[in-house]
Automatic annotation (TrEMBL):
It comes from Elaeis guineensis var. tenera. This is Uncharacterized protein LOC105036117 isoform X2. InterPro entries: 3'-5'_exonuclease_dom (IPR002562), KH_dom (IPR004087), KH_dom_type_1 (IPR004088), KH_dom_type_1_sf (IPR036612), RNaseH-like_sf (IPR012337), RNaseH_sf (IPR036397). The keyword Thylakoid does not apply. GO terms for biological process: nucleobase-containing compound metabolic process.
Amino acid sequence: MASGSPLHQTLVPLLTSPGGSLSDDDAQFLLVPIHIVTHASQLPPEFLNPSVDSQLVIGLDCEGVDLCRNGALCVMQLAFPDAVYLVDAVEGGKALMEACKPAIESTYITKVIHDCKRDSEALYFQFGIKLHNVVDTQIAYSLIEEQEGRKRSPDDYISFVGLLADPRYGGKSYLEKEEVRVLLRQDPAFWTYRPMSEMMIRAAADDVRFLLYIYHKMMEKLNQRSLWHLAVRGSLYCRCFCINDIDFADWPPLPTLPDFLAAEGYVPEEEILSVLNVPPGKMGRVIGKRGASIRSVKQSCNAEILIGGAKGPPDKVFIIGPVMEVRKAEAILRGRMIDL
């Protein structure tokens, strides 16, 4: 790991913490350094040089100004069991981010992230990095709920604050998150300032320091079929807003069904990502008054339907799910676009 005496530290939950919830008892936490990284040499060698012999699981998140293809990615946070690294894309620039590219794209490094779509979009369009081998805790949460027989309604996506508050995955409130949200509303350039303030460093570390603990709690619950769907959906979510002219031909292939599931006779319906182009002036019909139209489509189809919105792309609808459900959603949405 990187050498030197860190000026900043944070507490990460011990992966062996008893029970489902974390109290404020320091005995359940490990004090680890926070490294602010402006040069690749400050990152762990096993991260920079992914290898089948030293496979890693790390937490990952990104911060920036209006994070998407156009908004600036300013910090990429990496959580290891014994340290947190804040990769400073402002000071380190493209050279630093390009040094991270092999790891972010590697099959040998599992990236644990909550809602990867916009982070993936920013990494791809700003640095040419294709986020790969992701465990998305938002997707994992939904799969566990389905696995345990609970149904969720359309758009009922768990926030990271909500996930961390769930006693099964931490049972901790994250009041500081709202404090940072208020600051971002007041000053959207919050993440661009250098040197990073104590609040910026703390907020960046807070967004990743619980991810590995949550990951291990989820892995205890997910069955083999759910793990397979998690891998596929994670790959599709990484691609979601990264639409290009070659139809994702430059992206890694989607995961294939493991032999042991095939041997059990499990034949899941293929899951796909469809990108539907919306003609000029028709998005209002797709969304409907106060979102009523798009909400009814989501209730009719067992598929994820996402709209680029203000961050874009503004003229496309992204649909993720089993082929038959995706085709059904496409047909309904195309019907909404037809002039009456």
